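re: ur question from yesterday

yeah so i grabbed the chain u mentioned. its 374 aa long if i counted rite. heres the sequnce exactly as i have it in my notes:
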Amino acid sequence: MLLKERYPWTRWVGRVLRVVLPLGFVLGATSGASRWQPGAPQLTSIGVLWLVAIAVPLLIVHRFPMTIFLLTSALTLGYYASGNPGGPAIVLPTIALFLLTKIRGPVVAGATGGALLAVAGIALFVRHGFAGFDLRTGLGLVWVIAVVGVGTAVRNGMAAARARREQADEHRHRMAEQERLTIAREVHDVVAHSLAMINVQAGVAAHVADRRPEQAKEALLNIKEASASALKDLRATLAVLRSGEDKAPAPSLAQAEELFEHARAAGLEVRVDGEPGELPAPVDGAAYRILQESLTNVVRHANQARGVDVRFERKTGALTLLVRDDGRGAVEPAPGHGLRGMSERAAALGGALTTSVVNGGFQVRVDLPIEGEE
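ran it thru and got these structure tokens back, copy pasting raw so excuse formatting
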């Protein structure tokens, strides 16, 4: 955050300094010139008040830049024409022209400065004819061009700095949003799968507790195992978030058998076809999480499903993963956290995820490119 945005009062400090410092310089230089130059008129009280009157409007030049520039320029020309001692009073309209350029742009400032010179030239011609034009007339044109040029350079520099700040803010916002989505996906993937298995096993235990206590005991042991696994994964994820370092074990299809065992413990027959082979870590991790979420959805949502088919198709430069259950009456679901997270994982690697209803069951297909293979 900029200082002037955090402390608005600093704006007025800058505006006061914008008047006091140039005015002090002009008064000091003009007073010195009147004393040390032989035959120069002395700076009177009226001259001092005149210079103060030129400087004070600079307090509000940010609100009325064109008006203040014209006013300070007219007062400065009047000061020089009234027989007051010479000095750097031109500094004051120079500041006004500079700020006019910075605020309104070089076209407006150049046109205003040019119009002012034209009016001054006409007045000079009416009063003195062509004899009134000398080197100072050309210096006036050079003055306008130089001040507008410097103001334009500063204006462009500030615009570039502002654009860089906006880009940096947008980048930070985008990174924060990406980090938030990553955290949401990880927590969902870690917790949802285990909770789904726990829910199924708890239902089994409650159903057979009185009639088949051994089966109820087995279900409770499965619940204990699933909850312990969920706690372990969740602690690892939270440790990564606290430390900011990616030290958690990377998920991999090498651990896919654990997912299959969880699904079998929930009463599903899991049929696996094909092998994923060696995969780059990003593809391996994304495929594992998509497989995990797909099996979780079968356990949670499939209607009367007895089994699930998992097929890996490894082609040159791509991996295809299909997960299809044999449930009944499946329909295309509304996108939820799970499907959205799977799609985001696939898209992040340049892949694509599609869902469809096949023979009453639900199918998830994901195609992931593998870089470096041709």
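noticed a couple things. The CA atoms of residues 271 and 309 lie 5 Å apart. also The two ends are 49 Å apart (CA to CA).
anyway ttyl
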